[in-house]
Amino acid sequence: MTIIAQISDLHVQVSGKLVYGVVDTTPLVAEAIAHLSRLKQQPDIVIASGDLVQDGTIAEYELLKTMLAPLQCPVYLMPGNHDHRNHLKQVFASHTYLAKEKSHLSYTVEGYPIQMLMLDSIIPGKGSGCVDPERLTWLEQQLLAAPATPTLIFMHHPPFATGIPWMDRKRCQGHGALANLISQHPQVKRISCGHLHRTIYCPWAGTIASSQPSLVHQSGLDFTPDAPSQFVMEPPAYQLHVWTHENLVSHTLYVGQFDGPYRFSDGKKMMTAAL
Ligand SMILES: [Fe+2]
Ligand SMILES: [Fe+2]
User: Fold this and answer.
1) DSSP state of 101
2) Residue 198: nearest ligand to its CA?
3) Where are the domains of the chain?
4) Which tens digit of pLDDT belongs to each residue from 31-81?
5) CA of 135 relative to ligand 2 center, distance in Å
């Protein structure tokens, strides 16, 4: 069994500044990292799927580095639209997978029973994302090289439509060509994305596509056509993707202090500390 923790959309900002004038992300991220560190069974790997920081500054990445330090397992980072590729690489210079000489920061994580492909979907300076021909070619090369290896693709911008108009107006460009490629590679078990700040699943291109909750704030659920983009302070959460050698199963964990656990057999509270 391989356990992959995915944390997303941390939006770390230097101390004292509030994201959008409302959210103090530093304590929220710290609480989530502490929650993850307390898990009885630690993940084999942690993936952070973009919007690691709010403004892409060196100071923010330095703070992020300090905040991630308690994690004992390998941590892999990918950029989101709030990130700055060069500043990320500069501060995380020891993360040599980021140093590859190409125009995007896509890379492969090997050494696990399930292969992980990190597909950089950002357009520098823009909120929207894309999978352009260069990145599509890179992805195709990885998929052709390991046709029998179960594969999990991570990207920041989801390629699927959510049914929420204000989200779908910024749908990842190049999604049609990406769907065509993915549909030819049945080894792809999931495309797991960030950016939407909500837990969403749908069948897509012959596999399952999903988006992650955020560690700091969630997107407001409003299906009306003229609704503006919006966020709500629903509970922060992250996911554990468990590769069972048969299937990829994903579990959502909410960050916070919750009562329990209680035994079903006699209703007694268990001694195990609740997360
Ligand atoms: Fe985000
Ligand atoms: Fe984003």
Assistant:
1) S
2) 1
3) 2-254
4) 999 999 999 999 999 999 999 999 999 999 999 999 999 999 999 999 999
5) 18
